[in-house]
Amino acid sequence: MKRGIYVVKTDLEKQIGVREKAFSMVEIFSKYSEVLFIYSWGQYVYIDEFVNKQRLKSQRLRTNTLIDKIKSINSVMYSEFRKKVDYIYMRYTISDKSIYEVLKKAKDYKIKTFLEIPVMPYVKELLLQKKYFRFIIDKLIFSKIINYVDYIPTTSEFYLKNENLNNKLIRYCNGVNVNKYPIRKRPPFEDKINILMVTSITFWQGIDRILEGLYNFYKDNVKFKIYLNIVGVGPEMHRLKKMVKKYSLDRFVNFRGKLSGELLDKQFDLNHIAAGSLGRHRTDNNNISTLKASEYCARGIPFFTSVNEMCFNNSLNFIYFVEANDGPIDFLEIINFYQSINSFNYEKEMREYAIENLNWEKVLKEIILRF
Questions:
Q1: Do residues 104 and 214 both lie within one domain?
Q2: Which single residue of 30, 137, 200, 371 could bond 50 by disulfide (Cβ 3.0 to 4.6 Å)?
Q3: DSSP state letter for 176
Q4: Number of other CB atoms surrounding residue 199 within 10 Å
């Protein structure tokens, strides 16, 4: 059996979506190879061994600083390189010297290298966050790093200028563990509509478009009510709460914070429709596959989005595509959309679609074939 290393330096204690995705991928990879999963969790670095979707061993190393953490992760990898390793799969965060050194060392041992870049391009995202130093470092080092990469898995429909680099791209959909999620129980639909958005609260999610749309809607509508429930946290929360107060939307907008398990399941049962990403055009990467869309599909809740979701097409009746711009969401259109599908058994259709098209084993097939 082949043996691989899967590495995530992002703190999985804080990043719920990345955490669920990483563990799902490791489980599937471990059906086809032994996997040493090395990841960051709070102050610790964990080293887990997976075989046939089972975690056989786990150990952790305590670290005091980010530099200590990177050194610990690299030290474990270097030790493993001296053993039998067929491939290394790294989730890309940002270029730095340590990534360059690891990939270069891996090639010295003739190990296949996979560098996952989930969202491409990512430059504008860095600049919007004012991470100028990281942008400069990335620009200096990325061109060197890529020479030691065999494959670039990505959930983006993006083409690089360099044709040789394009040949390294492996596009895949963000999958979902369908059995993990219950099909939501559809709430009654009368004189109100509840909207759920499970998201990181960032500028490129476009939540401000919803608030602007609600403000416009309530200027002309009194009887029908729309309520927004936002599940998640992030740097935009303060600005959005100020918008809610400015537009007198306090009664209609609820920030639910981080939720999981039964509390999250309950939110899906209470809401009629979900909101996908509405601002990815702001970061020049609107042709992507999002985790939230796959989860919405598995749970059976229809949704609207401005993203060109690469794993869904325009003919599916449970998705409504809005314009990818900064304009307010037109909620009369959203209400009409929901009314048009409310008599259908879309939960069954969505669940079947997720099983057939979004299960992790299927979406990762092209990556696994290259091990």
A1: no
A2: 30
A3: B
A4: 24
